[in-house]
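Contributing: when you submit paired examples, paste them exactly as shown. First protein:
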Amino acid sequence: MSIMPMMHEVDPAEDLRKKIGDISGFNLIGPKVLCAIYIRPNKTKGGIIITEKTRDEDIYQGKTGLIVKMGVNVGVDADWFGDNKLEVGAWVGFRASDGYSLIVNGVHCRILEDVRIQCIASHPDLIW
């Protein structure tokens, strides 16, 4: 798993999808993705308590997000993406400074150009 596996009371992807709600009226222009920022739970599986201040840093410095919306022609550059598929529901890693930070329906998000996605992970705790 990760360097610091977290204690999840609910599935983090389902939690973010529920929190962001209906975003059918939100559209991206060009090959961009909207990522809901992963904010760690307040406790690790080992029992370490994460302070609110530390968790708040995930909003600004977090490098993991869930793709919740995609623009047109995302991931079509075969030279760049190869066999990797960007899709809604994928956990991705990126540099925090590469995205445009905004709040959508009360959820902290980033808009990124598709080529700014650096990795795809099966679970957000894999990225630290």
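Second protein:
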Amino acid sequence: MRRIVTAILSTVSTVVLLFGYHTSTNNTAAAAGPVVQQQASPGSSPPSRSSSKKGSATPKPGTGSKPQKPTATTTYTGTVADTQWGPVQVRITVQDHKITRARALQYPQGTSTDAQINGNALPILDQEVVQQQAAAIDTVSGATVTSDGYLQSLQSAIDQAHL
């Protein structure tokens, strides 16, 4: 009788452990998943491997007697960095030799894990670039592969801007 009870409890315990085990969502099949490209804002050119430039020739109204000098805003698109999970591409906006905006145009989003990781990491990376004005920023913990691709594409855009 003891053996039967022990055998049944062992079987039930094993089944519970097997059904409770969560497998990893980071597998090689995810590398072949789709890649999302964010649409560029209205008035800007589509993503490309070369730089695209957009200038502003309309002076802003000034309060003094002298008209203000128009400032040129230029965008630079970095080369596509191929990472383990998919391509990453960054575009920066430069005004008066300062980075005013950084944005990932392409990034992996094949799985829900990719979407969660990149949804958290990319805004942090974008903000750090504007604050540091360089590619010398820390990678985001948990998004190392995407961060490395981001930095590679970012450096390409910064090189094009001669910053």
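If you have annotations for the second protein, write them as plain sentences, like these:
The first helix runs from residue 2 to 20.
The chain is about 35% helix and 20% strand.
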